[in-house]
Structures are given as C-alpha cells and as structure tokens.
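Q: Here's a chain of 174 amino acids. Please give me its 3D structure as tokens.
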Amino acid sequence: MTDQDKVKENEAKEGETKENEVVESAASQNTEPARHNNRSSLIEGCFKTLEYVSKASDDKTIVYRDSDRRTTNFLGVALIGAVIFAVLPSLQLASLGLICYVVADIFLLLSIGGFVLTRFGVIRAMEPRYALVTWHLMVGTGLLTLTIGFNIVAIAVAVLMKDQIGSILSKPMF
C-alpha cells in the first residue's frame, strides 16, 4: 500500500467519523417532528398533526411555487362557484338545475384534480419510507371519499325512491 493510499484511507475514515457525529448530534436534538418511537393515540396523533400543519402553514419562510398558489386560488374560486351553481336551482330557477349542477361538478372536478395533481411531484423529494406512507394516505383518502360519496348517493336514492323500493321489496321502507 502506497503512502497516497494510506492518506486516502485515513481521510475516508475521518469523513465517516464526522458523518456519524452529525447523525448522532441530530438524533440527540430530536428536531424531526415524527420518528419510529413517537407514537400517540389516534386522537392525540390527529391533534398533534393538525397543530404541526397549522404551524407549517403560518411559517413565512416556506416559499410556495406559483403553480401551487394558482391552483389554491382556483380551488377557492371553484368552490364558491360550485356553491353558487348548486344554490341557483333553489332560487326558482329549476329549469337551469341540471345545467347548474353539471357546471358546479365540472368546476370542482377541474379544480380539485389540478390541485392534487400539481402536488404529486413532492413525493419524489421524500425519503422512500415517507413517500410510501404519503402515497398510502393519498390512496386511503381517495377510497374513503369514494365510499362516503357512494353512501350519500345510496341514502339519497333510498329516501327519494322509498315508495318504489318498498313496492319492489313488498314492504314499506320507513
């Protein structure tokens, strides 16, 4: 082994020692919001998460991309527009009801779709474990939303068509 090889080996060992010291120092400070041993009860965890996200939302040092601001603004405008279009039929404008509901639905679909899709890229910036957990949260939230939507429609159909359903089943529903 030459002298140059020995010097390189010593430098590599010193670099590893410094990296280990930095990791141990960061671990002792516990600056990360969540780690493996930081488990809470379900409700306590939800409140802690909401508090953490609230603090992050108030942090003025966090810079948003222009596309994030635009989609957030578009989402707000679309929600207001959807509410207006959903209320219009009840204001003696029944003839416009279906058109208003379709326009409200299109507003919501485009704005929520754009809002979510422009934020998918952040997953690539995460560590694999956090990316996977985030992906599971997104998929689970989507499935929960579909289930809630399906149940709302099923309840609405049951209430609106109780007589027809009752005659099919040969007994009244309510």
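Q: Can you summarize the key feature?
A: Residues 18-31 have pLDDT under 50 and may be disordered.
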